[in-house]
Protein backbone atom coordinates (compact mmCIF):
# COMPACT_ATOMS: atom_id res chain seq x y z
CA UNK A 1 0.00 0.00 0.00
CA UNK A 2 1.49 3.35 -1.04
CA UNK A 3 1.32 6.35 1.27
CA UNK A 4 0.62 9.84 -0.02
CA UNK A 5 3.78 11.93 -0.32
CA UNK A 6 4.07 15.62 -1.21
CA UNK A 7 7.28 16.17 -3.19
CA UNK A 8 9.18 19.45 -3.46
CA UNK A 9 11.88 19.33 -6.11
CA UNK A 10 15.31 20.73 -5.30
CA UNK A 11 15.39 24.30 -6.62
CA UNK A 12 18.98 25.20 -5.77
CA UNK A 13 22.31 24.71 -7.50
CA UNK A 14 25.09 22.16 -7.02
CA UNK A 15 24.95 19.02 -4.91
CA UNK A 16 21.84 18.78 -2.73
CA UNK A 17 22.72 15.86 -0.46
CA UNK A 18 20.23 13.27 0.75
CA UNK A 19 16.50 14.03 0.34
CA UNK A 20 14.71 15.27 3.45
CA UNK A 21 11.53 13.47 4.56
CA UNK A 22 9.19 15.32 6.93
CA UNK A 23 6.94 13.25 9.24
CA UNK A 24 3.98 14.89 11.00
CA UNK A 25 2.53 14.37 14.47
CA UNK A 26 -0.60 12.70 15.86
CA UNK A 27 -3.83 13.58 14.07
CA UNK A 28 -2.10 15.86 11.57
CA UNK A 29 -0.93 15.42 7.95
CA UNK A 30 2.00 16.23 5.69
CA UNK A 31 0.47 19.53 4.56
CA UNK A 32 1.42 21.00 7.94
CA UNK A 33 5.00 21.14 6.68
CA UNK A 34 4.32 23.13 3.52
CA UNK A 35 6.03 26.37 4.59
CA UNK A 36 9.14 24.54 5.80
CA UNK A 37 9.21 22.25 2.77
CA UNK A 38 9.06 25.10 0.27
CA UNK A 39 11.95 26.87 1.96
CA UNK A 40 14.07 23.76 2.42
CA UNK A 41 13.62 22.87 -1.27
CA UNK A 42 16.15 25.64 -1.96
CA UNK A 43 18.74 23.40 -0.30
CA UNK A 44 17.69 19.80 -1.00
CA UNK A 45 14.80 17.78 -2.37
CA UNK A 46 12.02 17.54 0.22
CA UNK A 47 9.14 15.16 0.82
CA UNK A 48 6.31 15.25 3.36
CA UNK A 49 4.39 12.04 4.00
CA UNK A 50 0.85 11.46 5.24
CA UNK A 51 1.12 8.67 7.81
CA UNK A 52 -1.33 5.74 7.49
CA UNK A 53 -4.90 6.88 8.12
CA UNK A 54 -3.98 10.56 7.97
CA UNK A 55 -4.42 13.08 5.17
CA UNK A 56 -4.64 11.26 1.85
CA UNK A 57 -3.04 7.99 3.03
CA UNK A 58 -5.13 4.87 3.59
CA UNK A 59 -5.36 2.96 6.87
CA UNK A 60 -5.57 -0.82 6.63
CA UNK A 61 -8.29 -1.72 4.15
CA UNK A 62 -9.84 1.74 4.16
CA UNK A 63 -9.71 4.51 1.62
CA UNK A 64 -11.28 7.94 1.36
CA UNK A 65 -14.30 8.64 -0.79
CA UNK A 66 -14.96 11.89 -2.62
CA UNK A 67 -16.31 13.58 0.51
CA UNK A 68 -13.09 13.00 2.45
CA UNK A 69 -14.70 10.35 4.69
CA UNK A 70 -13.37 6.86 5.29
CA UNK A 71 -14.94 3.67 3.95
CA UNK A 72 -13.94 0.04 3.35
CA UNK A 73 -12.57 -0.97 -0.02
CA UNK A 74 -14.60 -3.67 -1.75
CA UNK A 75 -13.45 -7.13 -0.83
CA UNK A 76 -11.22 -5.95 2.02
CA UNK A 77 -11.74 -5.93 5.75
CA UNK A 78 -10.80 -2.89 7.79
CA UNK A 79 -9.14 -3.46 11.17
CA UNK A 80 -11.47 -3.14 14.15
CA UNK A 81 -8.76 -2.39 16.70
CA UNK A 82 -5.12 -1.30 16.85
CA UNK A 83 -2.40 -3.92 16.72
CA UNK A 84 -1.66 -5.79 19.90
CA UNK A 85 1.40 -3.89 21.10
CA UNK A 86 2.80 -0.43 20.51
CA UNK A 87 6.07 -1.77 19.10
CA UNK A 88 4.33 -3.97 16.55
CA UNK A 89 2.17 -1.01 15.52
CA UNK A 90 5.08 1.42 15.39
CA UNK A 91 7.31 -1.08 13.59
CA UNK A 92 4.64 -1.80 10.99
CA UNK A 93 4.39 1.93 10.23
CA UNK A 94 8.18 2.25 10.09
CA UNK A 95 8.58 -0.76 7.82
CA UNK A 96 5.84 0.51 5.50
CA UNK A 97 7.61 3.86 5.27
CA UNK A 98 11.02 2.29 4.79
CA UNK A 99 9.82 0.11 1.93
CA UNK A 100 8.38 3.07 0.07
CA UNK A 101 11.59 5.09 -0.21
CA UNK A 102 14.74 4.15 -2.09
CA UNK A 103 18.21 5.31 -1.14
CA UNK A 104 19.38 7.29 1.87
CA UNK A 105 17.17 9.89 3.54
CA UNK A 106 17.42 12.53 6.21
CA UNK A 107 14.39 12.24 8.50
CA UNK A 108 12.67 15.07 10.35
CA UNK A 109 9.91 13.90 12.71
CA UNK A 110 7.61 16.09 14.80
CA UNK A 111 6.07 14.82 18.06
CA UNK A 112 4.69 11.32 17.32
CA UNK A 113 6.49 11.63 13.99
CA UNK A 114 9.69 11.97 16.01
CA UNK A 115 9.10 8.56 17.58
CA UNK A 116 8.45 7.16 14.10
CA UNK A 117 11.70 8.70 12.81
CA UNK A 118 13.68 7.53 15.84
CA UNK A 119 12.40 3.96 15.52
CA UNK A 120 13.11 4.06 11.78
CA UNK A 121 16.75 4.96 12.45
CA UNK A 122 16.95 2.10 14.96
CA UNK A 123 15.44 -0.52 12.62
CA UNK A 124 16.93 0.64 9.31
CA UNK A 125 20.06 2.66 10.18
CA UNK A 126 21.60 2.19 6.74
CA UNK A 127 18.69 4.18 5.24
CA UNK A 128 18.93 7.21 7.52
CA UNK A 129 21.70 9.73 6.87
CA UNK A 130 20.68 12.30 9.46
CA UNK A 131 17.89 12.54 12.01
CA UNK A 132 15.99 15.60 13.29
CA UNK A 133 13.66 15.08 16.26
CA UNK A 134 11.29 18.03 16.73
CA UNK A 135 9.34 18.48 19.97
CA UNK A 136 9.74 14.76 20.51
CA UNK A 137 10.53 12.39 23.36
CA UNK A 138 11.61 8.77 23.79
CA UNK A 139 8.77 8.26 26.30
CA UNK A 140 5.60 10.36 26.09
CA UNK A 141 3.92 9.22 29.33
CA UNK A 142 5.23 9.74 32.87
CA UNK A 143 6.93 6.76 34.53
CA UNK A 144 8.25 6.25 38.09
CA UNK A 145 11.74 7.14 36.82
CA UNK A 146 10.60 9.60 34.15
CA UNK A 147 8.88 12.81 35.24
CA UNK A 148 9.35 15.04 32.17
CA UNK A 149 6.25 13.70 30.42
CA UNK A 150 2.45 13.79 30.33
CA UNK A 151 0.56 12.06 33.13
CA UNK A 152 -0.89 8.74 32.02
CA UNK A 153 -4.32 9.75 33.32
CA UNK A 154 -4.33 12.82 31.07
CA UNK A 155 -3.63 10.74 27.98
CA UNK A 156 -6.31 8.29 29.05
CA UNK A 157 -8.79 11.16 29.24
CA UNK A 158 -7.92 12.02 25.64
CA UNK A 159 -8.49 8.40 24.61
CA UNK A 160 -11.91 8.36 26.31
CA UNK A 161 -12.87 11.72 24.76
CA UNK A 162 -11.81 10.41 21.37
CA UNK A 163 -14.55 7.80 21.62
CA UNK A 164 -17.18 10.50 22.17
CA UNK A 165 -16.16 13.28 19.79
CA UNK A 166 -12.84 12.91 18.08
CA UNK A 167 -13.04 16.14 16.07
CA UNK A 168 -13.42 18.12 19.31
CA UNK A 169 -10.65 16.07 20.93
CA UNK A 170 -8.27 16.90 18.09
CA UNK A 171 -9.05 20.60 18.50
CA UNK A 172 -8.34 20.35 22.23
CA UNK A 173 -5.04 18.69 21.42
CA UNK A 174 -4.14 21.61 19.16
CA UNK A 175 -4.73 24.00 22.06
CA UNK A 176 -2.27 22.03 24.19
CA UNK A 177 0.33 22.19 21.43
CA UNK A 178 0.37 25.97 21.26
CA UNK A 179 -0.08 26.71 24.97
CA UNK A 180 2.55 29.18 26.14
CA UNK A 181 3.89 29.90 22.67
CA UNK A 182 4.46 33.41 21.46
CA UNK A 183 1.52 34.49 19.25
CA UNK A 184 -0.50 31.63 20.72
CA UNK A 185 -3.90 32.72 19.38
CA UNK A 186 -2.70 33.28 15.82
CA UNK A 187 -0.90 29.94 15.78
CA UNK A 188 -3.98 28.10 17.05
CA UNK A 189 -6.09 29.60 14.24
CA UNK A 190 -3.49 28.47 11.68
CA UNK A 191 -3.42 24.92 13.06
CA UNK A 192 -7.22 24.68 13.19
CA UNK A 193 -7.52 25.86 9.60
CA UNK A 194 -5.02 23.21 8.47
CA UNK A 195 -6.30 20.34 10.63
CA UNK A 196 -9.09 19.00 8.40
CA UNK A 197 -7.89 20.48 5.10
CA UNK A 198 -7.29 16.90 3.86
CA UNK A 199 -10.39 15.44 5.46
CA UNK A 200 -10.70 13.76 8.83
CA UNK A 201 -8.07 11.28 10.02
CA UNK A 202 -9.19 7.68 10.40
CA UNK A 203 -10.46 6.80 13.87
CA UNK A 204 -8.47 3.55 14.12
CA UNK A 205 -5.30 5.39 13.13
CA UNK A 206 -5.90 7.94 15.90
CA UNK A 207 -6.44 5.16 18.44
CA UNK A 208 -3.29 3.41 17.26
CA UNK A 209 -1.29 6.63 17.60
CA UNK A 210 -2.47 7.11 21.19
CA UNK A 211 -1.47 3.51 21.94
CA UNK A 212 2.04 4.26 20.69
CA UNK A 213 2.25 7.43 22.76
CA UNK A 214 0.94 5.62 25.84
CA UNK A 215 3.09 2.51 25.72
CA UNK A 216 6.33 3.09 23.81
CA UNK A 217 9.50 3.75 25.77
CA UNK A 218 12.62 3.96 23.62
CA UNK A 219 14.99 5.29 26.31
CA UNK A 220 17.05 2.15 26.71
CA UNK A 221 17.82 2.00 22.99
CA UNK A 222 19.16 5.53 22.61
CA UNK A 223 22.75 4.70 23.53
CA UNK A 224 23.04 2.25 20.64
CA UNK A 225 22.17 4.82 17.98
CA UNK A 226 24.91 5.82 15.52
CA UNK A 227 22.97 8.35 13.43
CA UNK A 228 23.93 12.03 13.59
CA UNK A 229 20.95 13.67 15.28
CA UNK A 230 19.58 17.15 15.94
CA UNK A 231 17.17 17.32 18.86
CA UNK A 232 15.10 20.47 18.41
CA UNK A 233 12.92 21.67 21.29
CA UNK A 234 10.52 24.50 22.00
CA UNK A 235 11.46 26.33 25.19
CA UNK A 236 7.81 26.53 26.32
CA UNK A 237 6.65 23.08 25.22
CA UNK A 238 4.30 21.55 27.82
CA UNK A 239 3.56 18.33 25.90
CA UNK A 240 7.16 17.21 25.41
CA UNK A 241 9.13 19.36 27.86
CA UNK A 242 12.58 20.61 26.98
CA UNK A 243 13.98 18.38 29.75
CA UNK A 244 12.98 15.32 27.69
CA UNK A 245 14.79 16.72 24.66
CA UNK A 246 17.85 17.48 26.78
CA UNK A 247 17.86 13.91 28.09
CA UNK A 248 17.54 12.49 24.60
CA UNK A 249 20.43 14.61 23.31
CA UNK A 250 22.60 13.53 26.23
CA UNK A 251 21.91 9.81 25.66
CA UNK A 252 22.32 9.71 21.88
CA UNK A 253 26.04 9.29 21.05
CA UNK A 254 26.03 11.70 18.09
CA UNK A 255 23.42 14.30 19.00
CA UNK A 256 23.18 18.04 19.52
CA UNK A 257 20.40 20.02 21.18
CA UNK A 258 18.86 23.23 19.85
CA UNK A 259 16.20 25.10 21.83
CA UNK A 260 13.99 27.76 20.23
CA UNK A 261 13.08 30.49 22.69
CA UNK A 262 9.42 31.44 22.90
CA UNK A 263 8.28 28.31 21.04
CA UNK A 264 5.97 25.59 22.32
CA UNK A 265 5.13 22.26 20.63
CA UNK A 266 5.09 23.48 17.01
CA UNK A 267 8.31 25.51 16.61
CA UNK A 268 8.42 25.09 12.83
CA UNK A 269 5.11 27.00 12.60
CA UNK A 270 5.55 29.56 15.37
CA UNK A 271 9.22 30.37 14.72
CA UNK A 272 9.90 29.30 11.10
CA UNK A 273 13.04 31.39 10.56
CA UNK A 274 14.82 30.03 13.63
CA UNK A 275 13.65 26.52 12.85
CA UNK A 276 14.86 26.66 9.25
CA UNK A 277 18.23 28.01 10.29
CA UNK A 278 18.69 25.06 12.66
CA UNK A 279 17.79 22.58 9.92
CA UNK A 280 20.01 24.13 7.28
CA UNK A 281 22.99 24.37 9.61
CA UNK A 282 22.63 20.77 10.73
CA UNK A 283 22.03 19.21 7.31
CA UNK A 284 24.90 21.05 5.65
CA UNK A 285 27.53 21.16 8.36
Shape: globular
Share in helix: 25-40%
* SSE arrangement, N to C: EEHEEEHEHEHHHHEHEHH
CATH class: Alpha Beta
Which stretches are poorly predicted, pLDDT < 50 over at least 5 residues? 61-86
If classified by CATH, what would the architecture be? 3-Layer(aba) Sandwich
Characterize the largest beta sheet: strand count, sense, and whether it forms a barrel.
7 strands, mixed
Mean pLDDT: 88
Number of domains: 1
| CATH H-tier superfamily | Alpha/Beta hydrolase fold, catalytic domain
CATH fold-type name: Rossmann fold
- CA gyration radius, whole angstroms: 18 Å
Describe, in plain words, how this protein is organized in 3D.
- The chain is of the alpha/beta class.
- It has a single domain (5-283), classed as Rossmann fold.
- Helix content is 39%, strand content 15%.
- It contains 10 helices and 9 strands.
- The chain has helices at 34-40, 86-100, 112-123, 152-164, 166-178, 184-195, 203-215, 242-251, 267-270, 272-283; strands at 5-8, 20-23, 46-49, 62-64, 70-72, 105-110, 128-134, 228-234, 255-260.
- The strands form 2 sheets. A 7-stranded mixed beta sheet has the order 1-3-2-6-7-8-9, with helices on both faces. A two-stranded antiparallel sheet has the order 4-5.
- Helix 1 (34-40) crosses helix 10 (272-283), helix 4 (152-164) runs antiparallel to helix 5 (166-178) and helix 4 (152-164) runs antiparallel to helix 7 (203-215).
- The longest helix is centred in the N-terminal third of the chain and has 15 residues, at 86-100.
- The protein is globular, with a radius of gyration of 18 Å.
- Mean pLDDT is 88; it is low at 61-86.
